[in-house]
Amino acid sequence: MENRFRFTKTSLARLPSPAAGVRATFYDQDVSKLAIRVTSTGTKTFYVIKRVGPDMVWFKLGSFPEMTVEQARLAADVALGGFAGKENPAEVRRSIKGMPTVSEFFIEYGKRHGQKKRSWRDDQQRFRDYLKDPLGSRKLSLVTREMVGRILSDMERDDKAGATVNNVRALASALFGKAIEWGYVTENPVRGIKTRKTVKRDRFMLGHELPRFFAALADEPNTTIRDYLLLSLLTGARRANVLEMRWAEVDLTEATWRIPRTKNDDPQNVTLSPEAVMLLEQRKVLASKSAYVFPGTGASGHLVEPKKGWKRIFDRDELNQLELLIQPKNPKSPKTNVRLNMSEAALEKLLIETRAQAVKLGIDVESARMANLRIHDLRRTLGSWQAKTGASMAIIGKSLNHKNQATTAIYARLDLDPVRQSVNTATTAMMEAGGMKEKVEVVRLQTVRN
Question: How does pLDDT run across 323-367, given as a tens digit for each residue?
């Protein structure tokens, strides 16, 4: 067999073991100083073999297949760069061993830069969900463009939105940008990887979906989750701002909420509809001991992750819809009272069982669930209902704090009065469509009488 060929995973895996006491050495065609030594026991080890002064140095890189061919080539380039800089083998080895892993560097990145960003919490989630497992244990200098590209391609294969893929790409690029700036590496492996096409979402809650949503929301046993989701709908504020909402920012007399800093880095005055004011008055009794409107048990002091609660709303609604579809075909089927404080596990188990029963009866279970709704769509729902009730684009932009060059000047000239009228009209229309308006009026009348 030729002792020089192009290293690939397949070609190296097929290398035969030499006789006992013999070690065979093969060289890579792509990196001339990169070699792999094979022992009689089948151990395969990557080396850089290079003359340094009068000596022939065998610089060990790592074992195959634990170290991939791509990693070996990159490590060889790093080592050869050190030798070209007149470093001795010991210094080169210390340089490589001292290189932080991606996870170690992410901690440093957070302390020195990331925590200053408004999106730091989202960056932590993206790193944890998409980058930590495939890259976290690898040395920074050994991460290749192919590795990052594979991560993004896998996300696309798993039907992740283009915006999500681009956000992960941007985080990886920012990480390596700082690694270059701080002297760890000289190349950004994200460079040359194209951004993905994004499709702007236009999903919002439709008129026939609002009664279902309000009914399932009313059955939510966690009042913090329930009120958080309802206030998100009534104000159209961004997810993070509602989660971090403080009582000190709320003026119930003036029906306004002053957000000191938004995603746009600008403060925002949010007008509060009568329904939102009533909700906050009730919450103040429940959560008055906390500085936050939606307190949490974690280090932040406020609610952080409402995704499980969001899922429960739609699980509960789907269960209601399936039982309505099952009843005519199987009148003896008992109607479950899902208004009871059913545990999350019990709700999920019951939903699985009910789906199976519906399938046996030939019912299309896919149509029973309100599909493709996200928490951020609550914000879009308010804007959509404002448009439905005749609000101008400028007023909608003002109420949702959109930053748009074409309309910023118009927004600046608007005060809160037309915004308040639009939000109040839209929330009233939503409540009426959801069958909630009469209940709200009864509660309001009781409050006045008391």
Answer: 889 988 877 666 655 545 678 888 889 899 999 999 999 998 988
Is 210-306+375-449 in CATH node 1.10.443? yes
Q: Give the global pTM.
A: 0.61
**One-letter amino acid for residue 7 of the chain:** F
- At a CB cut-off of 8 Å and minimum separation 6, what does 390 contact? 425
User: Which DSSP letter does residue 303 get?
Assistant: -
Per DSSP (E only), the strands in 253-372 are: 256-259, 268-271
The residue ranges of every structural domain in the chain are: 4-97, 102-181, 210-306+375-449, 307-368
H-state helical runs in 330-436: 344-360, 376-388, 393-400, 408-412, 416-433
Helix or strand (DSSP H, E) at 135 = helix 132-135
How far apart are alpha carbons 47 and 72 in whole angstroms? 8
Q: What is the DSSP string of 50-101?
A: EEETTEEEEEEEEEETTS-HHHHHHHHHHHHHHHHTT--HHHHHHHHHTSPB
Query: CA angle at residue 168 from 165 to 169, to 5 degrees?
Result: 85
